[in-house]
Amino acid sequence: MKHTFFFRQLLIALVLMFSNSVALLAQSESDLPGSDLPGSDLPGSALPKVAIRYQRIGQVHPRYARDIQASPWSVGGETLDRGFADYDAYKKYLGPLGAKMIRLQTGWAKTEQQLKVYDFAWLDTIVNDALRQGVKPWLQLSYGNTIYKGGGGTGLGDGIPTSEEALAAWDRWVEASVAYYRDRTDVWEIWNEPDLGNGPAPAKYADFYIRTAEIIRDQQPKAHLYGLALAHIGDTLYLDTFLRRLQERGKLDLLDEITYHGYDLRPEDSYAPLALLKAVAARYSDRLTFRQGEQGAPSTRIPGFALKNYDWTEISQAKWILRRMLGDIGHDVPSLVFTMADLRYVLGENWQDTVLNTKGLLATDRNRNVLYAKPSYYAVQHLASVIDQPVKRMSTFTLEGPDLATTTAYAFRKADGVPVVALWQSGKAPGNNLTPQRTDVTLRGAFFKEPVCIDLLSGIVYQISKEDRSTKGNILFINNFPLIDVPLLITEKTAIVP
């Protein structure tokens, strides 16, 4: 009887141990910290996922922006000044995304609708809520104001103020704006895509930039100033003329970072013109840095706007965005995703006369309500949760094995020392295929103790089996790696799975 009781108790203990182990495994894959946050409500199985044959061992844990100290990621909150999106409709998704900055257009025409009367209430709501969520506002001073003759237009490519009256009014508004928000942000961008449409010639924009920057620095001496927001990154002449004018006037110190846009069907095609822009800037100063200030892809075929007339889907959109984000930091520039929510541009007087730009991470309806978070939202959330601190590109890293003409790979080291490698097929624009090509790869210069593979689309973490990998010093050999046209990450298991 004693033996029977002993074995019965032992059996109960073993069952409990097994149950607890199963519970812990379930917790590592589904009951994640932050899973109650908006934007974290879909399980990985409901998201598109790459067909990876490795063993699944966990899931990326979403991180709220206010829990992240610093990272290279920003998100776009543009066009709110013209009502093409509704911040209140999407604000609950902002902090859970994990981006640390949001780009906002301050809208002179929306703020000053009566002469010399500034109503910042509409922008206050946005700025204060973003800060509450741990997201720093990056305020762009634009566009014109038609209540002044020669005040410029209120939309993209409409031109800067030109008359003395309008320029004086612009000066007053800039001074008032900086004085009002200098306790909440120190990041200011001056105008948007001046090289587009009826925008000013580069020397004229330079003079306009200088007068604006001087007002900002007078109000906020340590303000960080972004300039240009170039639409055409292949136009080195615009940048060259702009910088020459600043140099001639002894005002290069008024520019901290050069922002640029530009859209390419294959995101990697943006980096050759970026190199030319960097070469131009280097002739004037070794202090100037670059920042990607607006990039994104639609989730449907669109007749207008950047990247039009291509059969985009929500999968190819997510792939494009991940490729662009990692390509940006692979070229040592911080990255912005355009934009939080689909934008409904008003074409005429009637609000119903609109056209939808589906570059949002969130799908919206005709009334600008959020319908759901797209796969691209979760993809960005996963990447922001893995690369959740400043990173340095490992310049000595090299990739061997696949066709290097159609493969992109970068290695980074996070501030805490953890290495991260990103690699993907980059020969074509992203498609909808989720079946990878098994390829033997050799990673030189990135040491891993126990490497894991992360599918950023689904957030699933996979164990790279010992049978498929081997190391020799700081060289990692992987057989049959699942190479595909969306970045997969390799990092240390201890950094992802508890």
CATH architecture of one domain: Alpha-Beta Barrel
Unreliable parts? 1-36
Class from secondary-structure proportions: alpha/beta
Number of helices: 12
Overall shape: it is globular
Average pLDDT taken over every residue: 90
Largest beta sheet: what is the strand line-up?
Answer: 8-7-6-5-4-3-2-9
The biggest beta sheet reads: 8 strands, parallel
Radius of gyration: 25 Å
Q: Remind me, CATH topology of one domain?
A: TIM Barrel
Q: Roughly what fraction of the amino acids lie in strands?
A: 15-25%
Distance between the termini: 43 Å
Report the helical percentage: 25-40%
Name the CATH homologous superfamily of one domain: Glycosidases
By CATH reckoning, the class of one domain would read Alpha Beta
Secondary structure topology:
Layout: H1 2-29, E1 55-59, E2 73-76, H2 87-90, H3 94-97, E3 101-105, H4 108-111, H5 121-132, E4 136-141, H6 164-181, E5 187-190, H7 202-219, E6 224-230, H8 236-248, E7 257-260, H9 271-282, E8 289-292, H10 314-330, E9 335-337, E10 343-346, E11 354-357, E12 362-364, E13 370-373, H11 375-386, E14 391-393, E15 398-400, E16 407-414, E17 419-425, E18 437-444, E19 451-455, E20 460-463, E21 469-472, E22 475-483, E23 488-492, H12 493-496
Parallel strand pairs: 2-3, 2-9, 3-4, 4-5, 5-6, 6-7, 7-8
Antiparallel strand pairs: 1-20, 10-11, 12-13, 14-16, 15-18, 16-17, 17-23, 18-22, 19-20, 19-23, 21-22
Helix pairs in contact: 6-7, 7-8, 8-9, 10-11
